[in-house]
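Hello, quick one for you while I still have it in my head. A protein chain has come my way and I'm curious about its shape. I'm sending you its amino acid sequence along with the backbone structure tokens. I'd be grateful if you could look everything over and explain what you see. Here's the protein in full, and shout if anything looks odd to you:
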Amino acid sequence: MNLIATSETQGEGHSARRNAVLESALALLVEGGERALTTAGVARAANCSKESLYKWFGDRDGLLAAMITFQASKVRAEPQPVGARGLPALRAQLVGIATNLLRVLAGDVSIALNRLAIGKAHRDAADLGQLVLDHGRRPIETRLSALLEAGRDAGLIAFDDTREAYATLYGLVVRDMHVRLLLGEPKQPFSPAARAEQAVDQFLRLFGAEETTGPARERTGSGSPNNAPNTP
């Protein structure tokens, strides 16, 4: 018997089953709100035992953290080296991540999670808002910031403060869409890919290095407070 292959297969099966449980828990939250998100309810919806839930996630906070992390993991793009392929490669990766970010934030699951976190802010021993920050927002910021720094190291973009550059990019991509949806404004049809391309091109015009934009164009500096929007 190939023990390595068997172990890998079991690991993949465990991960797939765990992800299926998380999808069921997220759907339960969207359909029934916080009250529906009980251990018994999740076990019933996912067709698994409560013992399995405790083994995988521990307590309810562990389940919520895993749900948030799983949702945030959907904001991704295939990693590619940016230095050798230049600005088109950097732009393609930024557009890919921004497109996924818009799709996730505009989805019912993201709206439900964020509304739950806002509603429980400062009222609960378990700070769900902090869980959203730690397991949802920060991994996305880390992923995008690493890509921005890779672009800077390759001489494709120029900025002094990574957090300011990230905040600007995030603001250009998301704008006030998420706030409007959280406040209950009906969803308006839009193309995530088209909006992502527009936002990334605006960002590159602001932060493009002179070698990639030409010396004749006046570039806006990266340290300006006006370039750092408040982000939801």
Q: What stands out?
A: The radius of gyration is 20 Å. Residues 157 and 209 are 4 Å apart (CA to CA). DSSP finds eleven helices and no strands in the chain.
